Amino acid sequence: MDNQNTENNAENQSFTIENFVSLSAQLVAAVRARETARNDRLFTDPFAAELAGKQALEMAKEREERTKDSVADRLAIRTRFFDDFLIDAVSEVRQVVILAAGMDARAFRLPWPDGTIIYELDKAEVLAKKEAILKEKQPLCHRKAIAADLTQPWQDKLLEQGYQNNVPSVWLLEGLLMYLTEEEVYNLLRNIWDIVAIGSYLGTDILNVYALQSQDLAAKYWRSGFDYPEEIFASIGWYVKVFEAGQPEANFGRFNTEVPPRDVLDIPRGFLIQARKLANKS
Ligand code: SAM
Protein backbone atom coordinates (compact mmCIF):
# COMPACT_ATOMS: atom_id res chain seq x y z
CA MET A 1 0.00 0.00 0.00
CA ASP A 2 1.16 3.53 -0.76
CA ASN A 3 2.62 4.96 2.44
CA GLN A 4 1.13 8.32 1.59
CA ASN A 5 -2.34 6.80 1.51
CA THR A 6 -3.47 7.13 5.05
CA GLU A 7 -7.16 6.74 4.32
CA ASN A 8 -7.37 3.46 6.16
CA ASN A 9 -4.91 4.40 8.86
CA ALA A 10 -7.19 4.70 11.86
CA GLU A 11 -4.51 6.56 13.77
CA ASN A 12 -4.95 9.51 11.43
CA GLN A 13 -8.68 9.68 11.79
CA SER A 14 -10.14 12.18 14.17
CA PHE A 15 -12.54 10.99 16.77
CA THR A 16 -14.87 12.82 19.07
CA ILE A 17 -13.66 12.53 22.64
CA GLU A 18 -16.52 10.12 23.43
CA ASN A 19 -15.68 7.89 20.46
CA PHE A 20 -12.00 7.91 21.27
CA VAL A 21 -12.52 7.18 24.95
CA SER A 22 -14.58 4.11 24.06
CA LEU A 23 -12.02 3.01 21.47
CA SER A 24 -9.23 3.52 24.04
CA ALA A 25 -10.53 0.45 25.90
CA GLN A 26 -9.93 -1.64 22.79
CA LEU A 27 -6.52 -0.07 22.19
CA VAL A 28 -5.34 -1.09 25.65
CA ALA A 29 -6.72 -4.59 25.06
CA ALA A 30 -4.73 -4.68 21.82
CA VAL A 31 -1.55 -3.91 23.74
CA ARG A 32 -2.42 -6.74 26.14
CA ALA A 33 -2.94 -9.07 23.19
CA ARG A 34 0.49 -8.18 21.79
CA GLU A 35 2.10 -8.64 25.22
CA THR A 36 0.39 -12.04 25.57
CA ALA A 37 2.09 -13.14 22.34
CA ARG A 38 5.60 -12.37 23.70
CA ASN A 39 7.80 -15.12 25.10
CA ASP A 40 8.79 -12.85 27.98
CA ARG A 41 5.20 -11.72 28.66
CA LEU A 42 4.37 -10.24 32.05
CA PHE A 43 0.85 -11.74 32.03
CA THR A 44 -1.42 -13.78 29.83
CA ASP A 45 -4.71 -12.37 28.64
CA PRO A 46 -6.30 -14.93 26.33
CA PHE A 47 -9.36 -12.71 25.80
CA ALA A 48 -7.51 -9.54 24.81
CA ALA A 49 -7.26 -10.07 21.05
CA GLU A 50 -10.97 -10.70 20.61
CA LEU A 51 -11.90 -7.84 22.93
CA ALA A 52 -9.58 -5.48 21.06
CA GLY A 53 -10.91 -6.25 17.58
CA LYS A 54 -9.18 -5.84 14.24
CA GLN A 55 -8.99 -2.04 14.04
CA ALA A 56 -7.40 -1.64 17.48
CA LEU A 57 -4.99 -4.52 16.86
CA GLU A 58 -3.80 -2.82 13.67
CA MET A 59 -3.47 0.53 15.40
CA ALA A 60 -1.45 -0.98 18.25
CA LYS A 61 0.89 -2.70 15.81
CA GLU A 62 1.45 0.45 13.72
CA ARG A 63 1.97 2.55 16.83
CA GLU A 64 4.56 0.15 18.24
CA GLU A 65 6.45 -0.18 14.96
CA ARG A 66 6.45 3.54 14.22
CA THR A 67 7.14 5.11 17.58
CA LYS A 68 9.84 2.82 18.98
CA ASP A 69 8.95 4.13 22.39
CA SER A 70 8.06 2.19 25.45
CA VAL A 71 4.34 2.87 25.73
CA ALA A 72 3.52 -0.80 25.22
CA ASP A 73 6.06 -1.86 27.87
CA ARG A 74 4.65 0.67 30.30
CA LEU A 75 1.12 -0.58 29.73
CA ALA A 76 2.28 -4.17 30.20
CA ILE A 77 3.96 -3.22 33.48
CA ARG A 78 0.82 -1.36 34.54
CA THR A 79 -1.34 -4.42 33.86
CA ARG A 80 0.94 -6.74 35.79
CA PHE A 81 1.37 -4.24 38.63
CA PHE A 82 -2.41 -4.04 39.12
CA ASP A 83 -2.89 -7.79 38.63
CA ASP A 84 -0.56 -8.31 41.59
CA PHE A 85 -2.15 -5.49 43.57
CA LEU A 86 -5.64 -6.97 43.20
CA ILE A 87 -4.55 -10.51 43.98
CA ASP A 88 -2.73 -9.29 47.11
CA ALA A 89 -5.82 -7.36 48.20
CA VAL A 90 -8.20 -10.31 47.83
CA SER A 91 -6.25 -12.19 50.44
CA GLU A 92 -8.19 -9.80 52.75
CA VAL A 93 -11.24 -8.52 50.90
CA ARG A 94 -13.79 -10.11 48.58
CA GLN A 95 -15.39 -7.09 46.91
CA VAL A 96 -13.56 -5.76 43.84
CA VAL A 97 -14.78 -2.67 42.03
CA ILE A 98 -13.25 -1.87 38.65
CA LEU A 99 -14.25 1.57 37.43
CA ALA A 100 -13.88 2.22 33.69
CA ALA A 101 -13.25 -1.49 33.26
CA GLY A 102 -13.29 -1.25 29.47
CA MET A 103 -12.05 -4.54 27.98
CA ASP A 104 -10.39 -5.62 31.24
CA ALA A 105 -10.76 -9.43 31.40
CA ARG A 106 -9.38 -9.91 34.90
CA ALA A 107 -12.66 -11.42 36.07
CA PHE A 108 -12.04 -14.20 33.53
CA ARG A 109 -8.31 -14.67 33.80
CA LEU A 110 -7.07 -14.18 37.40
CA PRO A 111 -7.29 -16.81 40.17
CA TRP A 112 -9.90 -15.25 42.45
CA PRO A 113 -10.58 -16.80 45.86
CA ASP A 114 -14.03 -18.29 46.47
CA GLY A 115 -16.62 -15.66 47.24
CA THR A 116 -14.96 -12.86 45.25
CA ILE A 117 -17.39 -10.53 43.55
CA ILE A 118 -16.24 -8.11 40.88
CA TYR A 119 -18.29 -5.07 39.92
CA GLU A 120 -17.28 -3.60 36.57
CA LEU A 121 -18.49 -0.12 35.71
CA ASP A 122 -18.14 1.61 32.36
CA LYS A 123 -20.22 3.36 29.76
CA ALA A 124 -23.19 1.39 28.44
CA GLU A 125 -21.87 1.14 24.88
CA VAL A 126 -18.48 -0.18 26.01
CA LEU A 127 -20.04 -2.81 28.27
CA ALA A 128 -22.51 -3.84 25.56
CA LYS A 129 -19.62 -4.57 23.19
CA LYS A 130 -17.75 -6.46 25.89
CA GLU A 131 -20.72 -8.55 26.98
CA ALA A 132 -21.43 -9.56 23.38
CA ILE A 133 -17.87 -10.88 23.03
CA LEU A 134 -17.68 -12.61 26.40
CA LYS A 135 -21.21 -14.00 26.59
CA GLU A 136 -20.12 -17.64 26.20
CA LYS A 137 -17.20 -17.31 28.66
CA GLN A 138 -17.31 -18.15 32.35
CA PRO A 139 -15.84 -15.64 34.81
CA LEU A 140 -13.70 -17.07 37.63
CA CYS A 141 -15.67 -15.10 40.24
CA HIS A 142 -19.10 -13.54 40.58
CA ARG A 143 -19.20 -10.67 38.13
CA LYS A 144 -21.62 -7.80 37.73
CA ALA A 145 -21.35 -5.31 34.87
CA ILE A 146 -22.95 -1.95 35.59
CA ALA A 147 -23.47 0.73 32.94
CA ALA A 148 -22.60 4.13 34.39
CA ASP A 149 -21.11 7.49 33.51
CA LEU A 150 -18.55 8.07 36.24
CA THR A 151 -18.86 11.83 36.00
CA GLN A 152 -22.50 11.47 37.11
CA PRO A 153 -23.79 9.86 40.33
CA TRP A 154 -23.14 6.10 40.05
CA GLN A 155 -23.02 4.99 43.68
CA ASP A 156 -26.68 3.92 43.93
CA LYS A 157 -26.27 1.61 40.94
CA LEU A 158 -23.40 -0.13 42.71
CA LEU A 159 -25.31 -0.41 45.99
CA GLU A 160 -28.36 -1.78 44.14
CA GLN A 161 -26.19 -4.58 42.76
CA GLY A 162 -25.19 -5.69 46.25
CA TYR A 163 -22.00 -3.73 47.00
CA GLN A 164 -21.60 -3.42 50.76
CA ASN A 165 -20.19 -0.10 51.89
CA ASN A 166 -19.58 -1.33 55.43
CA VAL A 167 -17.22 -4.11 54.31
CA PRO A 168 -13.69 -3.38 52.96
CA SER A 169 -13.20 -3.54 49.21
CA VAL A 170 -10.53 -3.03 46.60
CA TRP A 171 -10.96 -0.59 43.75
CA LEU A 172 -9.15 -0.22 40.45
CA LEU A 173 -9.25 2.79 38.13
CA GLU A 174 -6.81 1.96 35.36
CA GLY A 175 -6.34 4.21 32.35
CA LEU A 176 -9.18 6.46 33.43
CA LEU A 177 -8.12 9.55 35.35
CA MET A 178 -6.26 11.23 32.46
CA TYR A 179 -9.58 11.38 30.58
CA LEU A 180 -11.20 13.37 33.40
CA THR A 181 -10.71 17.01 34.37
CA GLU A 182 -8.91 17.83 37.64
CA GLU A 183 -12.23 18.57 39.28
CA GLU A 184 -13.72 15.28 38.06
CA VAL A 185 -10.66 13.40 39.36
CA TYR A 186 -11.03 14.98 42.78
CA ASN A 187 -14.77 14.28 42.88
CA LEU A 188 -14.32 10.65 41.88
CA LEU A 189 -11.61 10.02 44.50
CA ARG A 190 -13.78 11.75 47.07
CA ASN A 191 -16.90 9.74 46.10
CA ILE A 192 -14.97 6.49 46.40
CA TRP A 193 -13.64 7.56 49.80
CA ASP A 194 -17.21 8.18 50.94
CA ILE A 195 -18.47 4.77 49.82
CA VAL A 196 -15.66 2.54 51.13
CA ALA A 197 -15.15 1.02 54.54
CA ILE A 198 -11.95 1.55 56.51
CA GLY A 199 -9.31 -0.92 55.34
CA SER A 200 -10.27 -0.57 51.65
CA TYR A 201 -7.69 -0.35 48.89
CA LEU A 202 -7.56 1.69 45.70
CA GLY A 203 -5.19 1.29 42.75
CA THR A 204 -4.97 3.78 39.91
CA ASP A 205 -2.65 5.49 37.48
CA ILE A 206 -2.22 9.15 36.74
CA LEU A 207 -0.02 11.10 34.31
CA ASN A 208 2.20 14.04 35.07
CA VAL A 209 1.55 17.45 33.53
CA TYR A 210 4.32 17.16 30.94
CA ALA A 211 2.87 13.91 29.58
CA LEU A 212 -0.16 15.85 28.31
CA GLN A 213 2.04 17.38 25.58
CA SER A 214 3.09 13.95 24.34
CA GLN A 215 2.74 12.97 20.67
CA ASP A 216 0.92 9.81 21.68
CA LEU A 217 -2.27 9.12 19.76
CA ALA A 218 -4.33 9.38 22.94
CA ALA A 219 -2.75 12.58 24.25
CA LYS A 220 -5.08 15.01 22.56
CA TYR A 221 -7.94 13.46 24.51
CA TRP A 222 -6.24 13.66 27.91
CA ARG A 223 -7.52 16.34 30.24
CA SER A 224 -5.50 16.27 33.44
CA GLY A 225 -2.04 15.57 34.77
CA PHE A 226 -0.53 15.86 38.25
CA ASP A 227 3.17 16.23 39.06
CA TYR A 228 2.55 15.34 42.70
CA PRO A 229 -0.55 13.11 42.79
CA GLU A 230 0.14 12.36 46.46
CA GLU A 231 -1.35 15.76 47.25
CA ILE A 232 -4.82 15.17 45.83
CA PHE A 233 -5.08 11.76 47.53
CA ALA A 234 -3.84 13.06 50.86
CA SER A 235 -6.22 16.03 50.73
CA ILE A 236 -9.11 13.56 50.82
CA GLY A 237 -7.57 11.30 53.46
CA TRP A 238 -6.10 8.45 51.41
CA TYR A 239 -2.82 6.96 52.57
CA VAL A 240 -0.91 6.77 49.31
CA LYS A 241 2.17 5.19 47.75
CA VAL A 242 3.35 6.27 44.30
CA PHE A 243 5.48 4.18 41.94
CA GLU A 244 6.67 4.44 38.35
CA ALA A 245 7.31 1.80 35.74
CA GLY A 246 11.00 0.94 35.93
CA GLN A 247 11.30 1.21 39.71
CA PRO A 248 12.09 -2.09 41.44
CA GLU A 249 8.46 -2.49 42.62
CA ALA A 250 7.13 -1.93 39.11
CA ASN A 251 9.57 -3.34 36.60
CA PHE A 252 9.34 -7.14 36.37
CA GLY A 253 12.66 -7.20 34.52
CA ARG A 254 11.37 -5.07 31.65
CA PHE A 255 13.51 -1.90 31.84
CA ASN A 256 17.19 -1.61 32.68
CA THR A 257 17.46 2.15 33.04
CA GLU A 258 16.78 4.07 36.23
CA VAL A 259 13.75 6.30 36.64
CA PRO A 260 14.87 9.98 36.85
CA PRO A 261 14.34 11.73 40.21
CA ARG A 262 10.83 13.02 40.87
CA ASP A 263 11.84 16.68 40.73
CA VAL A 264 12.63 16.35 37.03
CA LEU A 265 9.32 17.61 35.69
CA ASP A 266 9.99 17.99 31.96
CA ILE A 267 9.70 14.33 31.04
CA PRO A 268 6.51 12.29 30.61
CA ARG A 269 5.64 10.13 33.60
CA GLY A 270 2.89 7.69 34.40
CA PHE A 271 2.40 7.17 38.11
CA LEU A 272 1.15 3.86 39.48
CA ILE A 273 -0.70 4.53 42.69
CA GLN A 274 -1.72 2.36 45.60
CA ALA A 275 -3.94 4.03 48.16
CA ARG A 276 -5.70 2.88 51.29
CA LYS A 277 -8.36 4.22 53.63
CA LEU A 278 -6.87 3.64 57.05
CA ALA A 279 -9.18 5.81 59.10
CA ASN A 280 -11.97 8.33 58.73
CA LYS A 281 -10.57 11.80 58.20
CA SER A 282 -10.95 13.95 61.28
N1 SAM B 1 -9.44 0.08 32.54
C1 SAM B 1 -9.44 -0.45 31.21
C2 SAM B 1 -8.08 -0.98 30.86
O1 SAM B 1 -7.09 -0.58 31.48
O2 SAM B 1 -7.99 -1.76 29.93
C3 SAM B 1 -9.92 0.56 30.19
C4 SAM B 1 -9.04 1.75 30.01
S1 SAM B 1 -9.54 2.75 28.66
C5 SAM B 1 -8.03 3.57 28.32
C6 SAM B 1 -10.50 4.03 29.40
C7 SAM B 1 -11.88 3.58 29.82
O3 SAM B 1 -12.48 4.63 30.58
C8 SAM B 1 -12.84 3.29 28.67
O4 SAM B 1 -13.36 2.00 28.82
C9 SAM B 1 -13.91 4.34 28.81
O5 SAM B 1 -15.19 3.94 28.37
C10 SAM B 1 -13.85 4.62 30.30
N2 SAM B 1 -14.38 5.91 30.67
C11 SAM B 1 -13.85 7.13 30.39
N3 SAM B 1 -14.64 8.10 30.88
C12 SAM B 1 -15.68 7.48 31.48
C13 SAM B 1 -16.84 7.95 32.17
N4 SAM B 1 -17.08 9.25 32.31
N5 SAM B 1 -17.69 7.03 32.66
C14 SAM B 1 -17.47 5.70 32.51
N6 SAM B 1 -16.40 5.21 31.86
C15 SAM B 1 -15.52 6.09 31.35
Task: Provide keyphrases for this structure.
binds S-adenosylmethionine; globular; alpha/beta; disordered N terminus; 36% helix; 7-stranded mixed sheet; 282 residues; 2 domains; Rossmann fold; 8 helices
Using only CA atoms, what is the Rg?
Answer: 18 Å
Low-confidence runs of at least 5 consecutive residues = 1-10
Bound ligands, each once: S-adenosylmethionine
Would you count the extended β strands for me? 7
Any overview of this molecule?
A seven-stranded mixed beta sheet has the order 3-2-1-4-5-7-6, with helices on both faces. It has two domains: 3-67, no CATH class; 71-276, Vaccinia Virus protein VP39 (Rossmann fold). α1 crosses α2 (48-67) and α1 crosses α3. The N and C termini lie far apart (64 Å). With 282 residues, it is α/β, with parallel strands linked by helices. β1, α4 and β2 (117-122) form a beta-alpha-beta unit. Helix content is 36%, strand content 15%. The chain contains eight helices and seven strands, in the order αααβαβαβαβαβαββ. It has helices at residues 17-36, 48-67, 71-89, 106-109, 124-134, 155-160, 182-195, 230-236, and strands at 95-99, 117-122, 142-147, 169-173, 201-207, 239-244, 270-276. Bound molecules: S-adenosylmethionine.
Q: Layout of SSEs?
A:
Layout: H1 17-36, H2 48-67, H3 71-89, E1 95-99, H4 106-109, E2 117-122, H5 124-134, E3 142-147, H6 155-160, E4 169-173, H7 182-195, E5 201-207, H8 230-236, E6 239-244, E7 270-276
Parallel strand pairs: 1-2, 1-4, 2-3, 4-5
Antiparallel strand pairs: 5-7, 6-7
Bound molecules: S-adenosylmethionine.
S-adenosylmethionine binds at residues 21-22, 24-25, 28, 100-104, 122-123, 126, 149-151, 174-176, 179.
